[in-house]
Amino acid sequence: MTLMIQPVILCGGAGTRLWPESRGDRAKQFLSLTGGQSLFRQTVQRTPAGPDFLPPVILCGDAHVAAVREQMDGREAALLVEPMPRNTAAAIALAVAQADANTLLLVMPSDHVIADIPAFHAAIAKGVRLAQHDWLVTFGIAPSRPETGFGYIADGAPLGAADEDGGFAVDRFIEKPPLADAEAMLAAGGYSWNAGIFLFRAARMRDAMLTHCRAIFEAADRAVAAGMRDGDALYADAIQFEAAPSDSIDYAVMEKDDRVAVVPVSMGWSDLGSWHMIHALGDQDADGNAVAGDVFLHDSHGNLVRAGGKRVSLVGMENVAVIVDGDDILVMPLARSQDVRAAAKARE
Amino acid sequence: MTLMIQPVILCGGAGTRLWPESRGDRAKQFLSLTGGQSLFRQTVQRTPAGPDFLPPVILCGDAHVAAVREQMDGREAALLVEPMPRNTAAAIALAVAQADANTLLLVMPSDHVIADIPAFHAAIAKGVRLAQHDWLVTFGIAPSRPETGFGYIADGAPLGAADEDGGFAVDRFIEKPPLADAEAMLAAGGYSWNAGIFLFRAARMRDAMLTHCRAIFEAADRAVAAGMRDGDALYADAIQFEAAPSDSIDYAVMEKDDRVAVVPVSMGWSDLGSWHMIHALGDQDADGNAVAGDVFLHDSHGNLVRAGGKRVSLVGMENVAVIVDGDDILVMPLARSQDVRAAAKARE
Predict the structure, then answer these.
(1) Contacts of residue B307 in chain A, CB cutoff 8 Å?
(2) What angle do CA B49, B54, B56 make, to 5 degrees?
(3) Does A324 contact B at CB distance below 8 Å?
(4) Is residue B183 domain-shared with residue B297, that is, in the same domain?
(5) Residues of chain A neighbouring B333 (CB-CB closer than 8 A)
(6) B252, B270, B288 - which closes a domain
(7) Of B130, B203, B300, whose CA–CA distance to A331 is shortest?
């Protein structure tokens, strides 16, 4: 059979951890957060292309169709529009339902950074060999710190030929760990971060979903069948899709299946999941300040300032985020970045 | 002779220590900083009136004529317009030059807070008796803390009848002291803060100026003579006034004259000279936050937030000022309030 790989870009996230810039129809993935192009554009550009690759499927909500079309910059793509958010299992089920049985689906979030694209592509090549043998493949990020904000994957038996680094059967998935556990896993080795990048044969995932989360797959399958096509976009049927239980692909399938593989990869990955991370990965001046826009700093160090078209002046400030977006101004210590949701919730 | 007292309200200050709200044609004195009326309106309203008092003379710059007219709220006043700022000695010289010789001039800044107005008026009554005997009278604020941001006045010999609290001859003026000196003066007693409120007979000040700073008085006198009247306003002549050396009334006259009196007064005075002071005197919630406008606070304490029509959200912040005005956003620790000029200078 001819090998065909279908990239699937998950674009449904709201990204409230980066409020106020990320919200409503301007979700995190469409923003320029690290000085260059938006995360979505970066994702599209690093998506493998070539004779084995179909144009990508973009899974997104109705509110983001315009942003997706604009940021595809004329590239060929198929839009698969979710009538409402139903988490990653149902989103991926939509992609599975419309795919040819033997197509390999390469599922990727649209809001991450990957610095080493050759390493990413090499990992995909390894994953393809496993997916062709009906493994559900996940890509594991080699951890660089005892991060407590991610789930972890424990390597099991090595796969592939004895002389190659061909990935591992997954021993188990570990939920966001306490710090002590994260430190122990980092020290022990054999663990990686779950980055939400997956590769699998469509029919294999269909079967897995019918086994592990039948209601999700059937709702998505019906939503595609009853969907409305509009040019390059397929709008999944709202009544059918609404019936899909909301669950993550990890809970609904990956943690339940017994033929899941992990391909560990070191590729300069970040989920840019907080303003703290944006600061850490941003271009910092000699005083550790990362700024965007019209910012005046006096005796200030280690700050993230995004002026959003306004004029921001800091005097004597240390290690805070000042994020301006429209009429919203957020001020918080960078170390409190996880608590931004309190403000986002109150304001949105 | 009939006693006539002419209030003179000095309105020429720029108030850059309260940038960004105070700037350009919206100087500090015209802002509502403590929740109620502007400092200028408060000054006008507490200015004594009655058969002995003439309508006030308002000394202001060209940029502030409109604000003064608006905030006089229809009260009678004479505007004396400075073509350019030349500090307090030249401003007061303008008022002296246009006054009748025997009128007492009561000179007051327009950007201070006085909580106890009866105490203020009682002090004026004491001062009147001294000014009638050709003392240059200054009102000294009983110090409540070892403030290093003000000049001090040392009491000399007591004046007035033995059985009354009639003020003191000034022993000497002390420039903004180091903390140790401020603490020593507070502990010793007999010192007060120089608040820039003065009372004197016009001819007495004219003579003092001709002795101590002749160039300033002569330039101001010519500027009044060549000035242009427009309704209630006298626009001092620019070419003449420009020749006046720029000096404070303290340096130019008070510190040099040998017949200067101080009337100590405790009247809930504040110069609201910094955002720190605005916070200290503002209405604070149970967490010590003083806010104006649309402000969301999460786990934040001791902050001053003025939203300026925008929406400000603080998460986990302590003891900072966030001041929004138009497109300008200032963020600094309240303890660094004196350094706001760095930002004001860079931005204006």
Answers:
(1) 329
(2) 80
(3) yes
(4) no
(5) 315-317
(6) B270
(7) B300
The answer on B266 and B130 residing in a single domain is yes
CATH of the domain at B33: 3.90.550.10
Q: Please compute the mean of the pLDDT values over residues A133-156 and round it to a whole number.
A: 94
Q: Quick check: A262 pLDDT over 70?
A: yes
Mean pLDDT of chain B: 94
Instruction: Work out the average pLDDT over A180-208.
Output: 97
Q: What residues of B are in contact with residue A316 (Cβ under 8 Å)?
A: 332-333, 335-336, 339
Tokens of A102: 């033997």
Q: Which residues constitute the domain of residue B300?
A: 275-347
For A1, counting Cβ atoms within 10 Å of its Cβ (0-12 exposed, 13-18 middle, 19+ buried), the class is exposed
The set of residues, in sequence order, having a beta carbon less than 8 Å from that of B262 and lying 6+ positions away, is B137, B138, B139, B140, B153, B155, B167, B168, B169, B170, B192
Q: In the prediction, which pLDDT does B162 show? A: 62
Averaged pLDDT for residues A233-254: 97
Distance CA A170, CA A138 (A): 9
Q: What is the pLDDT of residues B191-220, one digit of tens each?
A: 999 999 999 999 999 999 999 999 999 999
Domain count, chain B: 2
Cα separation, B133 vs B200, in Å, equals: 9
Half-sphere exposure of B99 (CA within 13 A, CB side): 29
B162 and B288 assigned to the same domain: no
d(CA A281, CA B284): 38
Q: Do B333 and A310 touch (CB under 8 A)?
A: no
Query: What is the ipTM for the molecules in this complex?
Result: 0.85
The percent of residues above 90 in pLDDT, for chain B, comes to 87
Q: Which residue of chain B comes nearest to A327, CA vs CA?
A: B310
Which residue in A201, A237, A199, A299 sits closest to A90, CA to CA? A237
The span from the CA of A120 to the CA of A115, in Å, is 9
Q: Are residues A239 and A290 in the same domain?
A: no
Residue of B nearest to A335 (CA): B316
